[in-house]
Each structure stands twice: as C-alpha cells, then as structure tokens.
Amino acid sequence: MVRVGVRSLNLLELQDLHLSYGKIKALKGVSIVVRRGELVTIIGANGAGKTSILRSIMGLEKVEKGQILWEGMPLNGMAAHLRAQLGIRMVPEGARVFPDLTVEENLRVGAFPLTDRREIETRMKEVFELFPVLEERRSQLAGTMSGGERQMLSLGRALMAKPKLLMIDEASLGLMPILVEKIYDSINELKRKGITILLVEQNARQALKVADRGYVLETGSIVLEGSAKELAGNPMVKEAYLGG
Predict the structure, then answer these.
(1) Are 137 and 101 in contact (CB under 8 A)?
(2) Measured between alpha carbons, how far apart are the two ends of the chain, in Å?
C-alpha cells in the first residue's frame, strides 16, 4: 500500500497542456499534479474539457503543447497500450462493458495479458469483495445488467490490472441517487486501500466528499484549485456547482 508522502516524486504531472479539436480549443494550458495515494478530482460542467484531460493522459488524444510526466518521465508520443503497461487505467463514462461477455469474462479481459491463474483468481476475489453483486452475477451477460451494476463491473475490470493510477470519468453519470452513493462508497474504499485516483465529475458534491484535492475546470482552463474542503467552501464553487 502506497501512502502520500512516502516519496517526494509526483506520480503524474501535467504541464501547460493544450489540445484542440479542429478550431475548438478543448484544453488551454492545463497544469495539474497527482501524488501517490491521493484522490484528486477535476470538477466542471459538461463540455469543460474534463474527458479530454483523461484521454490525453491515456494517449488517446495527441496534445499540441505541454508535457505529461509519469513518475518524472515524459509520456508525450507514447502509444496508449504502452501507457497502460505503466499502470495507467481509465474507466470511461457511460459504464462501458462488453455486453456479450459474462461478468467473469469481462473481468478476465481486464487482467490481460496476465497468465498466472492464481493471481487472476486472487484479483477477482478482491473485486468480488468490493462489489459482491458481481460475484452473484458472475455468469450473467454484462449487457443485461443495470446501469449501476455495469458501472461496478467497469470499475472492477480496471482494478483487475492492479493500476498505479485509476482514472474515472463521470462515475455517477445517469445513475439514481442510491446507486451514486454505492459507487462513491466503493471509490472511497479504493482510496482507503491506497489506490491513486484521478476522478472527473459534474457531480461536484459527491466528488468533493471523497477527494483530497481538486481542480475546477471551465472551458478548458483551470480556474481554481485547492483542498477538497477549501473548494467545497468556496463561494464560486458553491454557487456554480453545489446549488448555493
């Protein structure tokens, strides 16, 4: 288990990141830091550029300017599958799973290319401890599950890789409030286990409850940063994201 402060080196650092889609400037000089063992959140409205940050880190988008540093090493130009091998995993928005595969098959996909059967079973057991419903549904086709169950499966599949950094995109999107609470209880448990998490969310209230630190993104620019407590108490954040 890795705790904040064990090493001084940042796990992830974005320096002056710029990204465009045609003439649209999606990211305008974004700089953030994620330290080992932290849960860092990026909050902002739909279209602010939150997903673009995660896709840039994962290597799914080519940045125009700026540096992405992983444990001090530049990632710019590195293919996405090589970044995944470094221990970076992304849980995309919309609880995306393989609908024609069972729960267990989806989880095994997450462990690829691991071949040690005992280790795979150990990791699956850990996922089932976090999400008991997945064990109950292990033979069920993922496409027949509820939205909340698919979100749990999507998280579980990423955890099968034992990521050094777990990036979660809009964990609460489209879920009923009771399911949002369950998902965030699970995210909080992952934090307690020492997993480093970068969470992007429109649901600022939930995100700031579990985060250590956060950034506020507006139209591709970081406009505020601080501890979760500081951001939750900030008048601008309260008015724009917490309903006053």
Answers:
(1) no
(2) 38
